[in-house]
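retry 2 of 3: previous attempt timed out while embedding flavin-adenine dinucleotide. Reduced batch size to 1 and resubmitted. Inputs unchanged:
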Amino acid sequence: MNQSIQDLVVGGGVLGVNCALALADAGRSVTLVEQNTVCSGCSHGNAGWVTPCHSLPIPGPGLVYQTLKWMLQGDSPLYIKPTLRPALWTWLWRFYRHCNEPAQLRGLRAMAELNRHVLPLTKELVQRHQIDCQFEQRGITYAFRTEKGLQKGIRECERLNDHGIPGEVLSPHELRSREPELSDTMCGGVFYPGEADCVPDQFVKQLATRLPRQGVRILDHTTVNGYAVRGSQITEVATSNGVLHPENIVFTAGAWTLVQARKLGLRLPVEPAKGYSVTLKRQAGTPHNPLNLAEAKVGVTPWRDTIRLAGTMELAGLQLKINERRVAAIIRAAQEYLPRFTAAEPLETWTGMRPLCSDGLPIIGRSKRFDNLLIATGHGMLGLTQSVVSAQIIARMVLGGDPGFDVTPFAPDRR
Ligand SMILES: Cc1cc2nc3c(=O)[nH]c(=O)nc-3n(C[C@H](O)[C@H](O)[C@H](O)COP(=O)(O)OP(=O)(O)OC[C@H]3O[C@@H](n4cnc5c(N)ncnc54)[C@H](O)[C@@H]3O)c2cc1C
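retry 2 succeeded.
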């Protein structure tokens, strides 16, 4: 294979599939390459939440102290593997610089603006392509078992309300009438009515089946290995199946995007942030609707026949080894909040690497260094949530149009 093509999308996760579709809808001829099969990366086993209420960027005041405390616990929700790898230290330094209130509020403003478009666009896409993925806007409930956690959750809710994301505080009684399976020791809750969820794997895979109909060519089991460059143009992309000469390249390789970027001499502020999920048969103790076990930072998503527990953030480099202690901690947390839940009949234990930016915002835009390179990655905990809106922005940029709102906070070359 030695071919000239129009747009090349590298990586077939939720970002890649959405970008390919948005570009095809904009009249472009698109090739998508995926080193394994579509949706085999981080997009496979996540909690499935389409969740604007997660608009507050992760780096924030108090997090450094909290992280240091967590580092002493082997089963904490956040863990940083001690290493001398310079890229991690640079990333941590940048992260630290964003752990303050003004930076977090700036980030919140940008995220809330981006996330305003999430639900309308995602709903429209699911309907237009008749994606059967149990997509439903049924809200998300946060359950707090400590007074300190509840007070923090209420402050967060007020901030989000101020930025147009509705949420209401629940008394312990209101929380338990909404979710009777919760322990009667809960201090209270917050309900965010505007949130949706779906089975993420079904969303991506079904969307991918629509791609060939829209003229997209999918090359799976095809790895991008390297590039040839002339001036500010990437002229050649070497893959395991031959050489491509694209007009535009869109990096959507998730946590692996940093490897591709490095090959081009670009340093993206992205680190792999590993998380885990356990999917089980629906059983006693299953909540009615998606539940955030707030202090434990575990998401619980009930679907028709299954229930998924998801959580943990581990900065341990680019590797997919499953740490059983963390999986056990997720199950234990669910049992503490939902006493009837026995964790019977597990169907899948999974790990995936979120691409996480040091300022907590995604990367969506055109590279300054290479005119024909666009990047959509670094969405952290919100890759599914922001996939459709990110893809729209990328497609508009390829066409040379205006994305419709200020996307400079997401620029790939920001510092
Ligand atoms: C436990 C957990 C729970 C989560 N819950 C949610 C949630 O509820 N809602 C939400 O919005 N987000 C959630 N996320 C985050 C979300 O899963 C990610 O942000 C999202 O999946 C990232 O998608 P992606 O397309 O960027 O990356 P990926 O899905 O990882 O896709 C990248 C693809 O690129 C391919 N690739 C890499 N290198 C190459 C190469 N050289 N050549 C060809 N192909 C290549 C990979 O094989 C992979 O398939 C969660 C994450 C975790 C870990």
